[in-house]
Amino acid sequence: MAVGLLTAALAIAAHAMAQGAAPPGAAAASLSVLAITAGAVAANTNRTADARVLFALLAVGQLVAHVMLTVAGHTHCAASGGAPAAAMLAAHAVALVVGVALIAAGDRLCRAVTSALRAWSAKLPGVLATAAAAAVTAGDQPLRSTLLLAVSVPRRGPPVSLAR
User: Could you give the CA distance from residue 17 to residue 90 in angstroms, rounded to a whole number?
Assistant: First the structure.
């Protein structure tokens, strides 16, 4: 999921800085589809703990986002006030390296937290077993469902005026 979100966020932020405005609605919608697709691919890839795989996924996502925004009418030439090609390429490379480092660090942190929670919860069955042993006794009042059923039973028979 982080791969998809980072792909779209980097594309929107970088191209908004280069052009001075956020991408138009159709381009933003197509970037949303790209983000969902990149996130789904990353979620179904077995080796995403490897930084090289993360880098490849993010790089392909950035390339596809770049092509999508170019097709949508985004310009990159320095004459239009955009960033030079070398500066843009360097910014993308730095963003990819930082993104991979952040995702990998988040993955390691998530693994450490879940293993700590797993170790802590292993001590809980004794505590939970004593809580589950509490006895529940029947009350002296009938169940509410029984009372509602008794009230809702119709009285069968003809109306009094027709019985005479």
Answer: 14
Distance CA 8, CA 29 (A): 10
Element holding 32 (H helix, E strand): helix 25-43
Rounded CA separation 99/44 (Å): 19
**pTM for this structure?**
0.60
Taking only the tens place, the pLDDT of each residue in 46-93 is 877 788 888 888 888 888 888 887 787 766 554 455 556 677 777 778
Question: CA-based Rg of the chain, rounded to a whole angstrom?
Answer: 31
Q: What's the half-sphere exposure (Cβ side, CA atoms, 13 Å) at 151? A: 6
What is the model's pLDDT at position 79? 47
CA 71 – CA 53 distance, rounded (Å): 27
Cβ-based neighbours of 49, under 8 Å, separated by 6 or more: 104, 107
Tokens at residue 128, please? 């939970």
Nearest to 17 by CA among 97, 103, 71, 92: 92
In terms of phi and psi (left: phi > 0; alpha: psi -120 to 50; beta: otherwise), the region of 20 is: left
